[in-house]
Design a protein that fits this description.
single chain; 438 residues; mainly alpha; 0% strand
Length: 438
């Protein structure tokens, strides 16, 4: 470890935390002043839409119903116009976060490819890859099941859907494409038609598949493969160097992201959804404890040291709501901790596709929350079936925007739960995504 680098990294963590605080403060000021007019109009429009929905439920006259539905369309159009105006005002702050995340996404695909090829090639043969891969997938499947089961247990204990008593959205109030539940769709997510296309779309799982085959092939050709390994190793170090440059922009990105989200949503949303948010974060805390205890069983006291080392990527993932943003930094920190390069470069990319513990816990938590909100009683056997469906459909779709919501939408349809219930979560999803990403 280079002692000269350590202070810089520590300061970066401090700058990120300061940027979060400044972003929340400025966002609150904007919400109450700069965006007050738009927020007031939105509140008024939403109240009018709710009133219309209530009237539509009891209306019987066809002419009146048609008139109210037309009025609802006009209000929805006005709402979209106000949202667009508000987004435009906050665009400079959104851009700070977006540019940073684009730079990170630019790095992720080549970093996964180069490090994974080197890692697999250095393992030597297909038997070594299979042995380590088998252990890795066994852990991932175990951790995934624990995460899903914990989400199911916590939502049944807290019952936030019943206790919150939120007004239920109408069917059609939310539009999120369903995740395909077929084997065909899953396999398409796994096997690429083109590695260039997979890299362009940051389809991590597809990149991993190609990299594994490329690494095994490199090891198989013996002496000639050493040239490839040397080149890939050098390329990986160059990309990590670029990562260091990009990370200097992290505080600006965090400042922009926090200003935008608090400016648009305000702190009032924390009051409305305080029960759900606090219970979900408490469940995440328990998940952290379970994973830490699993690590402690293997590493003993070094598990505490590991937690200290990875706190910076955790803060970065939390503040940007992006696990991709933390990928290069996590890789670097694990290597500093003492993990072998070939193991880190093999296991970590797989984890980004197969071991999204926070998201998986959220999927069962959110799906059952929506069922509770509609007063749909799901027997234990049905809940366990939902858990197994989520276990399969959650793999390999990390690159999809709002990936968790996409999977939840498909799962709700499978179990005849109204997908409109997702509208209950859309407003707070960015806040929940921060915890999931971390």
């Amino acid at each position: 470890m280079d002692p000269a680098v350590k202070p810089k990294k520590s300061f970066l963590t401090t700058y990120i935390i300061i940027a979060m605080i400044l972003g929340v403060t400025l966002g609150f000021v904007f919400n109450k002043n700069y965006l007050a007019e738009e927020n007031s109009k939105l509140a008024s429009i939403e109240n009018s839409i709710r009133a219309l929905n209530s009237s539509l439920r009891v209306a019987t006259d066809t002419t009146v119903i048609r008139s109210m539905e037309q009025e609802k369309k006009v209000l929805s159009k006005s709402k979209n116009a106000v949202l667009s105006s508000r987004d435009k005002k906050m665009e400079p702050f959104d851009l700070l976060a977006d540019v940073f995340l684009r730079l990170i996404k630019m790095i992720v695909a080549p970093l996964v490819f180069t490090t994974l090829v080197v890692g697999v090639a250095k393992l030597g043969d297909i038997n070594s890859v299979g042995r380590i891969g088998g252990k890795t997938l066994l852990w991932f499947i175990s951790a995934s099941l624990v995460s899903l089961l914990l989400g199911m247990i916590m939502v049944n204990v807290f019952k936030p859907g019943i206790r919150m008593d939120l007004p239920l959205p109408e069917v059609g109030d939310v539009v999120i494409a369903n995740a395909g539940l077929s084997v065909k769709t899953f396999l398409y997510h796994v096997f690429p038609t083109s590695v260039i296309d997979a890299m362009a779309k940051n389809e991590i799982l597809q990149i991993v598949v190609f990299s594994l085959l490329f690494g095994v092939g490199t090891a198989a050709i013996g002496e000639q493969g050493k040239v490839v390994i040397t080149f890939m190793d050098a390329a990986a170090h160059v990309i990590l160097k670029i990562t260091g440059y990009v990370m200097n922009l992290a505080p600006l990105a965090v400042f922009g992201a926090m200003t935008a989200i608090v400016g648009k949503q305000g702190l009032n949303i924390l009051t409305t959804y305080s029960i759900f948010i606090s219970e979900f974060y408490f469940a995440l805390l328990i998940l952290w404890l379970v994973l830490f205890l699993a690590g402690f069983a293997v590493l003993r006291r070094r598990a505490i040291e590991l937690m200290k080392i990875i706190r910076q990527p955790i803060v970065l993932a939390f503040s940007t709501s992006s696990s991709e943003a933390a990928f290069p930094l996590t890789m670097e920190k694990l290597q500093r901790f003492g993990c072998k390069n070939k193991i880190v470069s093999f296991v970590l990319p797989l984890g980004y596709s197969f071991n999204l513990d926070g998201s998986m816990m959220y999927m069962t938590f959110a799906s059952l929350f929506i069922a509770q909100s509609y007063a749909i009683d799901l027997p234990l056997a049905t809940q366990l079936s939902m858990l197994l469906v989520l276990m399969l459909t959650s793999k390999g779709i990390a690159g999809v925007p709002r990936a968790s919501l996409v999977v939840i939408a498909g799962t709700l349809a499978t179990f005849n739960i109204p997908e409109a219930g997702l509208a209950l979560l859309l407003g707070i999803d960015p806040l929940l995504d921060m915890g999931r990403s971390a």
